[in-house]
Automatic annotation (TrEMBL):
Keywords: DNA-binding. Residues 7-61 form the HTH cro/C1-type domain. Gene3D superfamilies: Jelly Rolls, lambda repressor-like DNA-binding domains. PROSITE patterns: HTH_CROC1. GO terms for molecular function: DNA binding; DNA-binding transcription factor activity. This is XRE family transcriptional regulator. It comes from Paenibacillus soyae. GO terms for cellular component: cytosol. It holds the Pfam family Cupin_2. It comes from the Bacteria. Transmembrane segments: none annotated.
Length: 183
């Protein structure tokens, strides 16, 4: 964890000098320099006073880089194909336990020949088109603006029943990070 590097980056971005931090916290310049160069590990109380001086939440200083905001610009999305019908999947973003994607389902296409199951919980929002969804004994048709959710460990299937490409926003929660994002 590079807390010191984070402190320095925030301080510089906010145009705050080490001296200003020291005046507000009562810490010495030498100590602050050691903190920013990751040569000493400050106590939580000290970090709290530094965070207050920088006007940032203490929790933000404790985040690892991969836990901070991740940005995916529209033209930088990772695109993959999924299932036997090679549905287009645009990966919008993820955390270790949640993935969000937009799936394009051509007219008549589905997530497979038969219902399938996998770990996780899913929430779907139909952005365009009309789809049929089935999970176990439950099934329904959904149009633009409709949403549904399910535990993905029960076999399920999604099929486009319209004459236009269906577009579905899907959020998947899993207990552990999945290496293969799919429906």
């Amino acid at each position: 964890m590079n807390i010191g590097s984070s402190i320095r980056a925030i301080r510089k971005r906010k145009n705050v000098t080490i001296m200003q931090i020291c005046e507000e916290t009562g810490l010495s310049q030498g100590f602050m320099s050691q903190v920013e160069n990751n040569k000493t590990s400050p106590s939580i109380a000290t970090l709290e006073s530094i965070a207050k001086a920088l006007k940032v939440p203490l929790a933000y200083l404790l985040l690892r880089q991969e836990e901070r905001m991740q940005i995916v610009r529209k033209d930088e999305r990772r695109i993959s194909k999924s299932g036997v019908e090679r549905l287009k999947v645009e990966h919008l973003g993820s955390t270790p336990n949640v993935r969000m994607m937009i799936v394009e389902i051509p007219p008549g296409a589905s997530t497979g020949d038969a219902p399938h199951a996998h770990e996780g919980e899913e929430v779907h929002l139909v952005l365009q088109g009309k789809i049929y969804a089935e999970q176990g004994e439950d099934n329904a048709e959904f149009g633009e603006g409709d949403s549904f959710s399910w535990n993905a460990c029960v076999p399920h299937l999604v099929k486009n029943i319209s004459q236009e490409t269906a577009i579905v926003l899907i959020s998947v929660y899993t207990e552990k990070e999945q290496s293969n994002p799919y429906l």
